[in-house]
Every structure is written in C-alpha cells, then in structure tokens.
Amino acid sequence: MTFEQTVELYASVLRQLLPAGGYDTSPKSVVAKDVYAHARVLAQADVDAKRILTTLEKIPEELLSEYEAALGLPLKCTVNKTKTIEERLQIIQWIQQTKNVLNRTYLEGLLGLFSIKLVDLIRYRPMQCIASCNSPINTENLRFKVKLILKAPVQADMACIIQNYLPAYLRYDIKEQS
C-alpha cells in the first residue's frame, strides 16, 4: 500500500467518524482539509512505526516486559525459576515465528521451552470404514490419539502443557523413556 493510499484510507475512516449532517462534506471545505491533514499525519506516523519496527533487528531490553505482556508471557506451566534475558528473548522470538501446528518441529520447540526432550511422536488414526452414518465418531475408543515418548525425567507439568498449548481434539498418551 502506497503512502497516498494510506492517507486516503485514514481520511475515509476519519470522515466516517464525523457526525451525520453536522459538517459540510464537500471536498473544498475547511473540514475536508482538516480531515486530510490529520490523515496525512496519521499515515506518516504509521509508515514511521513500520519502518522502525522493520529496522529493529532484535527486541531492546528496555521493551522486554512490554513484549512479554503483549504475548501473554511468562508461559503457563513453567517451573518457578528466573530466566536470563537471552532466554526470555528466545521465547519471544519463538512465539512470534511459530504457528500452532501439531507437527514434530512445533512439539520439539514447545517442549524445549520447558526443558523436555521429545524422543518420538506416534500418531494413531481410528478407522471406521464399515460403520453406519449415525454411529458416534469421537468416543473414547475412536478418538484420535498421539503418543509422546519423552526423555526421562520430565520436570514440567505435562497435563498443564497439553491443556494450554496443544490441540484439545486429540488424546495424548505420555511415556517417559530413559
């Protein structure tokens, strides 16, 4: 979007915020010039903010607590231990770059934040080829299951991690392996 398009977008939004019938809507009026001037300032501030955010290579330490508050950090289910600034920055960057998709890469990253090592991920899919159309599909026996084999010892609360960070439509079987 170009700068002029951004200005027009802000101008149209500002015009919509004016009360109906109270102001002259002609393009040559003082109100139209005022709306356009405010739109240019808002668009310039938007462009400057985007430029600053793209040039920042890393999060400044002074803004770390604001970033954590915006992203809902600290993570739930963590053990009460203080993290270094580098660890906190790593968690913020991982959250910003990661989509919540159930695959091995996501699980390794998520469990790595809690100091858990994923050994293996096994997915079970139920088969119902000859069942009738009105038979239940999400019973305990037919639920999609995922087996997580983790390296022992697991110090974190896996029930909390499953409840807060993994899809709820799956059943998770946890096995620790030394």
Automatic annotation (TrEMBL):
Lineage: superkingdom: Bacteria
Protein name: DUF2313 domain-containing protein
